[in-house]
Amino acid sequence: MDNWVRSPHYQVIKSPISKVWILLEMIKFEHTVFALPFAYLGAFLGAEGPPDLWTSLWILVAMFGARTAAMGFNRLVDIPFDSKNPRTKERALPKGIVKARDAWIMVIAASGIYFLSAYELNLLAFILSPAFLAVLLGYSYTKRFTSMCHLFLGLALSLAPMAGWIGVKGSVEFLPLILSTGVLFWVAGFDILYGCLDYDFDREQGLYSIPARWGIKKAFWISGIFHLLAFISLVFVGFLAHLNWIYYCGLLATFALLVMQRLVVNPKDLSRMNMAFFTFNGAISIILFTSTAISLIWKP
What we know:
The chain has 15 helices and no strands. The chain has 300 residues and is mainly α. The chain has one domain (2-297): Tetracycline Repressor, domain 2 (Orthogonal Bundle), CATH 1.10.357.140. The longest helix has 25 residues, at 53-77.
C-alpha cells in the first residue's frame, strides 16, 4: 500500500472510491469478524433460532455503523501516539494519506447509520444506543489513565451479544449478561497479549496497560486467568440456554484455540502475535456462533 501511495499514480487515492477503500482499510473493516458473530449469537439465543430477515439485516447495519464509528474515532484520537509508534506510524492518518476531516465525516455518518438501525429495531435498542456508542468511543481514551483499558475494550465488544439480544427481544435478561461477561474476558485476555507488542512504547510514552505496568510475563498469566473466566462463562451460557452437545463441541474447539495461542506466542517470543491474535480469535468467534446456531436449529 505504501509503495503504491508514493508512486506517480498517487492522485488515484484522491478519487472517492479509493478514499473509501483506504478508510475501510484504516479501520481494519475485515476484523468485524470478531464482533459480528457474537451479535448474531445473542440474536439467535434471543429468538431461540434464526431471527427474522428484517431484524437480521438491521442488526448487520447497526454493527457496521457502530464498529466503523468506534474504530474511526479510535484512529483519530490516537494520531499523536500512532505517528510515533513504529508499529502504527504507517497507518493512513499519521501518514497523511487521508485527511482527519474525511475520517470525521466517516465517524459521524457511521454513527447516524447506527442510530437509525437501533430505531428500526425496537424502542429499547434506540434508547440504549447513545450509551452503547459512548462506551465504544470512550474506550479510545482509557489507555491514557488506566491499566484496565483491556477490560474496557472487552466491555465495548461485549455489548455486541447484548445488542443482538435486545434487537430481537427488546429486553435485558440474565442469559445475555452471562454471554457478554464471557466475551468481555475473552477480548480482554487477547488484548493483553496483543498489548505486549507495545510494551516499550507504552512505558516510554506514559501510556497505561497491563503489560506496561506488570511486565510481559505477568501479563500472560493475567490473560490466562481472563480466558479461563471467559470459558467458564460460556459453559454457563450453554447450561442456561439448554444447548446440546454441538455447542459444547464448539466450546472445546474454542478452549483448544485458546491453548494454542500460548503455544504460538510466549513472553520470550512475540513474533507470531499477529497470527495468534487475528487468526485464532477470528476462528473462535465464528466457531462459537456456528455451534450455537446449529445447536438451536438442529436438535437431534
